[in-house]
Design brief:
Length: about 220
């Protein structure tokens, strides 16, 4: 017997709307998180560690050049793809048909299989106030970012969302269409409370060891 299909939720390396996106993911039944390599770096900078994510979700890391885990889409393991938050990098790649990371491969293959995709794009407004790890920053997305979002809106089987409220509404519609329901709010609250301290950003001399950042002047052990 095959297992019931699940949500495939791709997380990219965006600090913008990261918490809001995870808060929605935590309220859904049966979600697997697929992290881009950048997401894996950025998540701990916002206090979200892999071990804590794994207590709530099945977590798939971007460790293969050919996006091996995407094969699960062919096995009908997923009824919906969510990309949230989606960096301007991932949006740009998706909009021109590039698939060279876990999220972009999921998006391309979901499209070819007719699996609906919900993409929460970061850069959708002329001015975006975004959360850096320790501060708030005002950004002005360029024409190219706004153009890529517009391009993506034209793709088949794709809904592009411009706010967490829009994503929540789209997920609500998807749940209803699938005959599913949101989990009780407490399920998300427990997960969200697990946020740890923000880790430092990897420095220029980062030796790549998991969670270990070498300071200038410090040598490898
Ligand atoms: C702390 C931090 C926060 C970031 N936040 C954003 C963001 O909000 N939006 C964005 O487009 N890129 C952001 N980036 C840059 C992306 O992580 C970078 O472009 C990366 O190459 C994206 O790769 P991905 O699209 O495969 O996840 C951030 C980087 C760091 C270090």
């Amino acid at each position: 017997m095959t297992a019931a299909p699940r949500f495939a939720w791709a997380v990219t390396g965006s600090g913008h709307e990261l918490e809001e996106s995870l808060a929605l993911a935590a309220r859904l039944p049966d979600v697997d998180l697929f992290l881009s390599a950048a997401a894996e770096e950025v998540l701990p900078m916002y206090g979200r560690r892999l071990e804590a994510l794994r207590r709530r979700f099945r977590v798939v890391r971007d460790k293969t050049a050919s996006a091996v885990p995407v094969g699960a889409l062919y096995a009908e393991a997923y009824h919906t793809l969510v990309v949230a938050p989606a960096t301007s990098n991932t949006v740009a790649k998706c909009a021109v048909g590039i698939s060279d990371s876990l999220p972009t491969n999921l998006y391309a293959q979901a499209g070819k299989l007719g699996i609906p995709s919900l993409v929460y794009a970061c850069d959708t407004e002329p001015v975006v106030v975004t959360r850096a790890p320790h501060d708030w920053v005002t950004l002005r997305p360029r024409r190219i970012e706004l153009r890529n979002v517009a391009l993506l809106r034209e793709f088949e089987a794709t809904e592009v969302l411009a706010s967490a409220a829009e994503l929540e509404a789209a997920l609500g519609r998807r749940l209803a269409a699938l005959g599913l329901a949101w989990l009780p709010a407490q399920a998300a609250a427990d997960f969200l409370a697990e946020r740890g301290p923000a880790s430092d950003a990897p420095g220029p001399d980062d030796d790549g060891a998991e969670g270990r950042v070498r300071r200038p002047g410090e040598t490898a052990a």
